[in-house]
Amino acid sequence: MRPARSRDMNASAAAATPSTAILAEIAAGLAHGGDLPELLRRFLEPVVCLAGASGGAVRVLSETDQRLHRISIAGDAAPTCRGQAAADRHCGACGAAVDALRLVWVGDAERCRDGAAGPSMLVVPLQHRGRVLGVYNLYYESGVEPDAEVQSLLKSVGELLGLALDNARLERENLRATLLRERQMMAADVHDALAQSLAFVRVRLPLLQDAMLAHDDERSLRYWGDVKSAVGQAHASLRAILTHLRVPMDPQGLVHALGVSAETFRRSSGAELEFVNEVPGLKLEPERETQVFHIVQEALANIARHAAAGHATLRIAPAPWIAAADAADAVEIVVEDDGAGIAAGARDGAGHYGMEIMRERAQRIGGTLEVGARPGGGTRVRLAFPVERARA
Predict the structure, then answer these.
(1) pLDDT recorded at residue 209
(2) Of 29, 205, 359, 381, which is the most exposed, with the fewest CB atoms less than 10 Å away?
(3) What is the pTM of this model?
(4) Would you tell me how many other CB atoms lie within 10 Å of the CB of residue 267?
């Protein structure tokens, strides 16, 4: 005959086996991800069985209305709160569990805040790092509170499922942030590809009309050529956006693309432009080249549209004063003009969509953008950013 102690140990081991299996199954479910409400529903019945309860419900705390929404019921016991699908996060025993981050027992003689009667209930918060994301309601017809060992196990289950809820919340937030970032990038591409060309057309059309009314064939043909070229460029850029969701970069690199932009500026604006490149071997990654190019292009477009300048300068130069430890070289690109200047609100980007996009592009390459007055009159735009020593 085996000793009594040996029989008790075997019984305890047998009792621990289902709980261990449930925890392992929950962990496996979290690892595979998937539909989180469905995961909570699937584990409701095993948790009810593990707790020795006659029924249960699972509620998820909504971030929108801060209410506990019931997503599933198991067993024969009727849920509390008169069967309501949602309850206030501070209501009764559920609210006490949420506020105190602990298991809460409700005996037969106790009632919820709204006066609803029901069986005895144990509320298990689903929480992670002090943040409650839902609760399990476990109902007991016997009116006997589960022992400390069962409650400890249920607490572990609640923390494990709370981790799953928190991960799902972070995943939703990351998805929203990613979608917002993609929309901003698409808006920037549309602005740089179409808005500048259409703004140029808008400026040229009145000049074309005046030349036609004055029967000045030479000016009419020149302005007509400018409009035709701008519309063609806008159409090509739109096709590129629709095909690749971004405007393609000049395959010959950033310096060549800026040289082409400088020539286009001279031809279309009538102002003189001095292009000085003190970093002839500058090479950047394609994505960084694209961001830099569009910042400079927007700065030149602003001069052509608003500055009424007679002379402008585009300068690429080393900027050792911003060099970081992990990027021993740095470059600055300065665009300045002798025109009418820019208002303080526009310098700050207030109400100026193009300026906001320029700043966002500068941040993406780890750089800074400064817009201010040029000594002697006009505007100065300075873009400074770090580059790898081996690439510059």
Answers:
(1) 93
(2) 205
(3) 0.46
(4) 13
pLDDT > 60? residue 353: yes
Looking at mean pLDDT, say which of 179-183, 196-200, 212-216 comes out highest: 212-216
- The full 3-state SS of the chain, as one line of letters, equals CCCHHHHHHHHHHHHHHHHHHHHHHHHHHHHHCCCHHHHHHHHHHHHHHHHCCCEEEEEEECCCCCEEEEEEEEECCCCCHHHCCEEECCCHHHHHHHHHCCCEEECCCCCCCCCCCCCEEEEEEEEECCEEEEEEEEEECCCCCCCHHHHHHHHHHHHHHHHHHHHHHHHHHHHHHHHHHHHHHHHHHHHHHHHHHHHHHHHHHHHHHHHHHCCCHHHHHHHHHHHHHHHHHHHHHHHHHHHHCCCCCCCCCHHHHHHHHHHHHHHHHCCEEEEEECCCCCCCCHHHHHHHHHHHHHHHHHHHHHHCCCEEEEEEEECHHHCECCECEEEEEEEEECCCCCCHHHHCCCCCHHHHHHHHHHHHCCCEEEEEECCCCCEEEEEEEEECHHHC
State the average pLDDT over residues 287-305.
Answer: 88
Q: Strand 329-337 vs strand 311-318: parallel, antiparallel, or unpaired?
A: antiparallel
Q: Domain spans of the chain? A: 16-169, 249-392
CATH code assigned to 16-169: 3.30.450.40
Render pLDDT for 271-292 as a digit per residue (tens, 0 to 9): 899 999 999 888 888 888 988 9
